[in-house]
């Protein structure tokens, strides 16, 4: 197993989140192992998209995938590879993670509302990140959980006010 084994699974997750890959592009940011990184990601995506290499080295960032109007940054540390950012929202989504992405219009109490729905279904949050374009505008809540998110939980969260889209990570 290579040090980049989880890249294929992360790419499969992104492909599920972004089924339309027309116009997608992949930028390899790593200085070393560029071919292996690109190969693992393209294999996981299951489609051929343009790949470009950056001229420099970016700390722990390996690649950026742009698809469907969204930007996914993939990074690696001493433990694992993971999605480190979705658009403007920092996160840490490792391969095989349970959780959800909640696209919503920013409002006071969204963290409480989503957390309460998860707690009502006995789902424990292990990581939570929230970011927004600006107050009252488009926002993204990323919750990584210990338990699987079922369609019933997704439906319960979709019923909350100002929720635009809820996507389970698995």
Could you write a compact summary of the structure shown?
The protein has 170 residues and is of the alpha+beta class.
Descriptive labels:
single chain, 36% strand, alpha+beta, 170 residues, 25% helix, 4 helices
How would you portray this structure in words?
With 170 residues, the protein is of the alpha+beta class. It is built from 4 helices and 10 strands, in the order H-E-H-E-E-E-E-E-E-H-E-E-H-E. The two termini are 23 Å apart.
Class derived from helix and strand content:
alpha+beta
What proportion strand?
A: 35-45%
Q: What is the residue-mean pLDDT, rounded to a whole number?
A: 91
Biggest sheet features: 6 strands, mixed
Shape: globular
SS element count, helices: 4
The count of DSSP E runs of length 2 or more, i.e. the number of strands, is 10
Main-sheet strand order equals 2-1-3-4-5-6
N to C succession of SSEs: HEHEEEEEEHEEHE
Low-confidence stretches: none
Distance between the termini: 23 Å
* Percent of residues in helices: 25-40%
List the SSEs and their pairings.
Elements: H1 6-17, E1 25-28, H2 34-45, E2 51-53, E3 61-67, E4 70-76, E5 81-86, E6 89-93, E7 98-105, H3 110-120, E8 125-132, E9 138-145, H4 151-158, E10 163-168
Parallel strand pairs: 1-2
Antiparallel strand pairs: 1-3, 3-4, 4-5, 5-6, 7-9, 7-10, 8-9
Helix pairs in contact: 1-2
